[in-house]
Each structure stands twice: as C-alpha cells, then as structure tokens.
Write a structure and sequence with these properties.
It is a single chain. The protein is mainly alpha-helical. It is globular and about 55 Å long. Helix content is 76%, strand content 0%. The chain has one domain. The protein contains 14 helices and no strands.
Length: 297
C-alpha cells in the first residue's frame, strides 16, 4: 500500500502539471486586467475550505468506527488525497485514503466507504448551497433564472431530504445490498450531524472565493456577489463528469457561461481559468503545509 501511495502521488503530480500547463496556454493576459489583491485574497477561502473538509471527514470516520481517530494524520491524509482528484476517473481519492488507513488505526474498507458517504452529503449540499445563492441573489448574473426558480426550490428540498436521511435514518433500515457493498455494520445513521454543516461551510467558502475572483477580473461588487453561486455550482457539475480530472473543462464552462452576459467573453473566461489556477494552488499549498506540520511533530 505504501508503494501504491507513492505511485499514485507521482501520477497525480503529473496531472496537476498537465492541468497547469493547459490553463497557462489558454490564458490571454493582454485582453483582461486582473486586480492582484482580490485574486490573492481568494486563495485564503479555498485553503480554509480544504482544511474544514478534511476535519469533517475525520469526524465521519470517527463516527463510522465509533471512536476517535487522530486529527493530525487524518487531516493530512485527506489533504493529500485531494490532489488525487486530478486523476481521470477520480479513483485516486479513495485509493490514497485506503492506503493511509493504517496510520489512523482504521480498516481500509471503512475508509473507502467513508469516501462514498462523504460524497452523498457533500454533493447534494453543494448543489443546495449553489441553488440557494443563485435563486436568492444570482439573477443579476444568470439571466435565465426565471425558469430555474420554478424548480430550484423544489430541487433544493429534495437534496435537503436526501441529506436528512443520511443524518437521521438508522443504517439498519438501508437496503441490504447497499450495506453489503459498503461493508457497513453496527447501528445508527451513516452521517454525524456535524458533517452536512461542515459541507455548508465548505461550499460557502467556495462562494466567497468566487466573489473575489469575479471582482478581480472587473465585475462590480454587486455583480461579483451575485456570481458567487456559480463557483459553488461549477465543482458539483464538474464532479459529475467522472472521466475528467477534477472536472477540468466542465467547471470552467459553467463559470464562463454564467459570467459572459455581464462581463463579456474575455473576463468570463479569465475568471474561470483564474479560479482553476487558484484552486489548484490551494490544494498543493494545503498539502505541503500539512506535510510540513506532520514532519515537525
């Protein structure tokens, strides 16, 4: 498993470098002005979001095994595995976490199951947060929200119900096939109540990042705030594009298409590429800091 972690980590960095080069080739700096301060500030919410997500996953694993797990190694393992999103098929995340399960004193199969459960909470919550922001304040940016408002709140209600099932329904009432596939035993809900709240905070931080990025490429303050929901929606849609590493291309399309009416094609594309580059830097920086802290300890 150690060899698997080394090989996968090397593969991940190859894809990270590939993604960075692809974004650099698409950047046309002469056609748009980027304000440096808000662009740099937009890095902070994503680093905070990565750490918050890692802490929430640690709470989930502790909930599944019925005891505490070490916080430092769990957070570091999660941050390391986030880089594996840049692998096609997104298989690197569960494999890297399972490979590091011994450091947490947790069975690898439980760690693998936790990734799936985390997705069942994170993605619906992300869609709900994005939908709520777009319905409430996004009309200034997304001109086609009239049709979205007709079903947006209903969809948010469905997603909230799905998350509530994870938090409230005892796992013994789940279909037997699901329990066998996830190797789940014991009793109680699959999610600790804190996990959806962590995911709300995680996606809210993505929205803050997005508002700063839009402002950096020339949006006025009301438009920048109104566009924040796009940056929460884009990673959720990108996740659904399973073959693409970290939703590359899909995420940028959602952001740029949402901004093009208000900002024009140049700034809209610049915002999408800038957001991707900053999120990539945040992933690498959070991983590097966690590794340095672990070594110091």
């Amino acid at each position: 498993m150690r060899a698997v972690r080394v090989v996968l980590t090397l593969v991940v960095f190859v894809f990270v470098a590939f993604a960075a080069r692809k974004l650099a080739l698409r950047w046309e700096s002469g056609k748009v002005h980027v304000a440096l301060l808000p662009a740099v500030l937009s890095l902070a919410p994503l680093i905070a979001a990565a750490v918050l997500l890692a802490w929430g996953w640690k709470q989930l694993v502790a909930h599944l095994v019925g005891r505490q797990v070490p916080t430092g190694p769990a957070v570091a393992l999660n941050l390391e595995s986030q880089l594996a999103r840049y692998m096609p098929g997104k298989v690197g995340v569960p494999v890297l976490r399972m490979a590091g399960a011994d450091a947490l004193g947790v069975p690898a199969i439980t760690v693998g199951s936790s990734v799936f459960i985390e997705i069942l909470s994170s993605e619906p919550v992300g869609a709900a947060v994005a939908g709520a922001l777009l319905v409430s304040i996004g009309g200034r940016v997304v001109q086609s929200l009239a049709s979205f408002e007709q079903w947006g709140f209903a969809a948010i209600g469905v997603l909230a119900t799905a998350t509530a099932v994870l938090v409230l329904v005892d796992r013994r009432h789940y279909p037997a096939l699901a329990l066998r596939l996830l190797k789940l035993q014991g009793r109680g809900p699959l999610c600790p109540p804190i996990l959806p709240l962590v995911h709300v905070g995680y996606w809210a931080l993505w929205a803050v990042h997005g508002a700063l990025v839009s402002y950096a490429v020339g949006a006025d303050l009301p438009t920048a705030i109104a566009s924040s929901g796009l940056y929460a929606l884009a990673p959720v849609v990108g996740f659904m594009a399973v073959p693409t590493p970290a939703g590359i291309g899909v995420r940028e399309a959602v952001v740029s298409m949402g901004l093009v009416t208000q900002l024009g094609s140049g700034p809209a594309l610049a915002a999408a590429i800038l957001s991707r580059g900053i999120s990539l830097a945040a992933d690498v920086l959070a991983w590097a800091v966690s590794r340095a802290v672990r070594r110091r300890r």
